[in-house]
Amino acid sequence: MTTKKHSAQNIIEFVFVFLVTMSVFFSIIELGLYWRAKYCVANLANEVIANIQITAQNRQSEQEIINNALTAVKKSSGLLNLSNTEYSVLGSNGSYTIKSNFLKQGQSALVVFVDIHDIKNSDVRVGAAYRYNGIFLFKDGKTISSVPMYSVQKF
Known about the structure:
alpha+beta, two-stranded antiparallel ribbon, about 45% helix, elongated, disordered C terminus
């Protein structure tokens, strides 16, 4: 009789320890995926601003700058699993928004803001926002944003 009680106690203890261990394990995986997405958004914003700065220093038009920004977004968005996504460009007069047509919870998964203050002085600002939906944590979504800051250098 005591062996049945002892084995039942072992099963109950195992279940509780297993649940706690798996919760910690999945949380670590989820946080790793979140930090990877955060790094990828910062990398995307840096890549876009670098391409825009090179284009602006070559004294190209606003439309060429936005086209280069769109190309950089398409190249870098594969890191966020958005490689086959179409993008739309909205805006005018130096203020543009590049949005992915892939939606997460009714919102665009990736939005890149491009603000062209002064092409002659290569004064361009970029910001990127990505809607991250987690598997275990952040199920309702969390916005990851990056606004790289660079000093403008002319060559």
